[in-house]
Amino acid sequence: MSEFPPFQYGKSRFNQETFLGRFRHFLDVIDPSTLFVSEKRLQECIKLLDGFKQGTLPPGVTDAELWQAQKIKQAIIHPDTGEKILMPFRMSGFIPFGTPVVVGLLLPNQTMASTIFWQWLNQSHNACVNYSNRNASKPAPFYKFFQGYAGAVTSAVSIAVGLNVLIQKANRLSPTTKLLVQRFVPFPAVASANICNVVLMRHTELSDGIEVLDDSGQVVGTSKVAAKHALMETALTRVVMPMPIMVLPPMIMAVLEKLPLLQRRPRLVLPVHSLVCLASFGLALPLAISLFPQMSQISVNQLEPEIAMATDCKILTYNKGL
Predict the structure, then answer these.
(1) Are strands 219-223 and 315-319 parallel, antiparallel or unpaired?
(2) Is the pLDDT at 57 greater than 70, yes or no?
(3) N or C terminus: fewer CB in 10 A for the chain?
(4) How far is it, in rounded angstroms, from Cα 90 to Cα 98?
(5) How many percent of the chain have pLDDT more than 90?
(6) How far apart are CA 11 and CA 139, in angstroms?
(7) Where are its TM segments located (predicted)?
(8) pLDDT single digits (tens) 62-71
């Protein structure tokens, strides 16, 4: 099989029915090299794809060039709004811009102030990523997203601070055990707050619905049922995502910190910790977002009766968001 199959506009070059296909697709989506694409190169890609749609491609254009053009456009341009996503909030920027926050979250010996600061920063970054990559087929007032942001930050800080206070008051635990347990506090705080973040930042989709498309990409209608599925799938990825990021580094660092090299040179602990977090983040993100295809499918039998009556298609598609 050729590495580059015949180009299909708006489709993935990998099989989205399989986990491996979605994993390879999302490795393309989070590729940080697209952060360095110039405006000129972006416009060239858009022009090339427009030429494909209109049947006016110049001679000699290969499938590989078309797939690369689509990869660049999808990494930078929002599929619903057609606007550029700010660099730190693109999925391709999630790991480079999110890793310093993860390192801060997992630093040992956190004070109350540092716990609040890193949880606030993490949920602020998550909120901006969720907002920037939302399903935007139906417009919603910005104040609703601000309400969601406030709720997500409050939940993250409350859970993290509450767990830390409980650990400090656990007199049965030895100081060493307390320190070890404290390192795992970020996971339940981040996982539960991530669910709140997704639901609160995108709750307007539940009340307004999202667009569902037929086989030809035409809008059939607006569905609240599809919106519920989209949010449930996205929320699940946000629970799975922090598992390797928040659980592996504390376990690995607990072993590495006992090595003679790091005991002799404690200044190396932070750089090593950062590399461990970066590797964990790089593994966790594509694994989590590969659980479901971005353009998910749903049977018309599960949707509202008026949508089922408006189309002959048995399966419709919706943008789950990321």
Answers:
(1) unpaired
(2) yes
(3) N
(4) 11
(5) 14
(6) 25
(7) 146-167, 179-200, 239-256, 268-292
(8) 999 999 999 9
Distance between CA atoms of residues 207 and 228, nearest Å: 10
Whether residue 170 is contained in a domain is answered as yes
Q: How many CA atoms lie within 13 A of 126 on its CB side?
A: 36
Domain count within the chain? 1
Q: How far is CA 56 from CA 40, 60, 61, 258, 299, in A?
A: 20, 12, 11, 64, 36
Average pLDDT of 167-195? 72
The model's pLDDT over 280-304, given as tens digits with 9 standing for 90+, comes to: 888 888 888 888 887 888 888 888 8
CA distance 192 to 122: 13
Q: Between residues 52 and 319, which one has the greater pLDDT? A: 52
The token pair that represents 144 in the structure block: 């609703």
Q: What is the dihedral of CA 182, 184, 186, 189, to 10 degrees?
A: -100
Contacts with 209 (C-beta within 8 Å, 6 or more apart), sequence order: 138, 222, 223, 224, 226, 227
Residue 62 in any domain: the answer is no
The domain containing residue 248 runs over which residues?
A: 91-319
> Does 198 fall in a domain?
yes
Return d(Cα 73, Cα 41) in angstroms, integer: 10
Angle between helices 63-76 and 19-29 (to 10 degrees): 70
Assigned domain for 7 exists: no
Confidence label for 107 from pLDDT (cuts 50, 70 and 90) = confident
- Rg (Cα) of the chain, in Å, rounded? 22
Q: What is the pTM of this model?
A: 0.72
CB 182 within 8 A of CB 108: yes
Tokens 């809008």 — which residue?
219
Report residue 132 as tokens: 């920037």
In the structure, what pLDDT confidence band is assigned to residue 45 with cuts at 50, 70 and 90?
Answer: very high
DSSP 286-319: HHHHTSS-SEEEEEGGGS-HHHHHT-S-SEEEEE
